Amino acid sequence: MTVPIPVLLIRGGTSKGAYFRAEDLPADPTERDRLLLAVMGSPDPRQIDGIGGAHPLTSKVAVVGASADHDADVDYLFLQVQVDKPVVSAEQPCGNILAGVGPFAIERGLVEIQGSRTSVRVRMVNTGALAIVTVPTPDGRVEYTGDTALSGVPGTAARIEVEFRDTAGSVAPGLLPTGRVRDDLHGVPATLIDNGMPVVCLNADDLGISGYESPAQLEANAGLCQRVEQLRLIAGKLMGLGDVTVTTVPKMCLIAPAAHGGTLSTRMFIPHRVHASIGVLAAVSVGTAAAIPGSVAYRQDLPETIRLEHPSGFYDVVIGVEASGDEITVGRSAIVSTARLLLDGQVHPRQEHPHG
């Protein structure tokens, strides 16, 4: 007879995950991962004997507990449970599942409600970085209904803001690694920036395209792909990243004027395939570039919420930038997301028969 484990199933951003208190899972990572494979139903393409959704976006786990870090309220460990392999990975964090950590911490009593909006300080165990998840909490409880839309999520929900701290120069040496707002990459103007993710911003028309092509059309353009990779190799050295031939950064973002009422249009090479949308931290970097005067992506009269259009819809970010000459100070780097509590209950993990 297995012992049932308390769990909340929460949609965070465009992903869905099982959220657990750290104290409810084994402390030993090997034992914990073995248990989570049974909980999610892996390895099995359908995850038929577990609560996983048979897709990487729905086979995710958040482990949340009180933090010993005086700058954080909770620690959040993200675990990707592979669907068809007995593998649990903690290699990288998940910004989508992060959006649900705030509601979870409040629902489980790890953080007290502070008023109409409650901010939860989260230490992301995977990287050590800090984030602040601000959750609407009117009437003394988490509010999940609202009018904020996310591309890829049906309907609308309450707006959650996820603010990242100390993201400038996450990999490269500084927000603008070259010390310049605009660089010349063999005749192509570019902005080289790292506010959470090293990104090279280029104007699409400087490469002879509109910037509204589909990912398939861009990937089929062999000459364009070769040109983008040549520029990436040059930019990598300028950004202090060395020879980036076999690395996934910097990402390459092709910029065009907004086509659907947003702030600007984006096409992301990540770096050799073209993203169907845009990554969380890449969006933060591109949004920051849009707020810096003189950058390739700069847009005047920016709205408070910057909307980045992409092939699958849009992504919203909130960026605060102060520019004084060559001094650029980033005051705020946040994404707009939503989350919804789907289930509050207990999971009964599969138990192996003692005789096999």
Provide a descriptive summary of the structure in words.
Strand 9 and strand 10 (188-194) form a beta hairpin. This protein has two domains: 5-159 and 339-347, Diaminopimelate Epimerase, Chain A, domain 1 (Roll), CATH 3.10.310; 183-334, Diaminopimelate Epimerase, Chain A, domain 1 (Roll), CATH 3.10.310. The chain has a 17-stranded mixed sheet that branches. It has 356 residues and is α+β, with helices and mostly antiparallel strands. It has six helices and 17 strands. The model has no long low-confidence stretch (mean pLDDT 95).
Tags for this model:
Diaminopimelate Epimerase, Chain A, domain 1; single chain; alpha+beta; 356 residues
